[in-house]
Amino acid sequence: MGESGTDQILASKWDIPFVVFGMVRLAFGNLPLWAKAIVLGLVGSLAVWTGITWLRERRRAGRLSRSDRTG
């Protein structure tokens, strides 16, 4: 059989989350509970902050586009 010339590897949609979960488990597995709680709190705060900022920008863009149409 001839080679197709593409060096692509087919992967399932669960490969990346599996690797990320494994890396997090390896990185934080030996930390004490209080350190895990601090890291989780920081990541959670960042996620909430990002969500609020995204919603605020989305609402602002919606208001601007409506005011442009009404004129």
The best one-word shape is: flat
The averaged pLDDT comes out at 83
Order of helices and strands: HH
Instruction: Count every helix, treating DSSP H or I runs of 4 or more residues as helices.
Output: 2
Helical/strand content category: mainly alpha
* End-to-end distance: 65 Å
Radius of gyration: 22 Å
Strand-residue proportion: under 5%
- Which bin fits the share of residues in helices? over 70%
Task: Count the E strands.
Answer: 0
The stretches of 5 or more residues where confidence is low (pLDDT under 50) are: none
Q: How is the main sheet built?
A: none
Summed up:
The chain has 71 residues and is mainly alpha-helical. Helix content is 73%, strand content 0%. The radius of gyration is 22 Å and the shape is flat.
Structure description:
The protein is mostly helical and 71 residues long. It has 2 helices and no strands. It has helices spanning 15-28, 33-70. The longest helix is centred in the last third of the chain and has 38 residues, at 33-70. The chain is flat, with a radius of gyration of 22 Å. 0% of the residues are buried.
Layout: helices, strands, pairs:
Blueprint: H1 15-28, H2 33-70
Keywords:
71 residues, mainly alpha, 2 helices
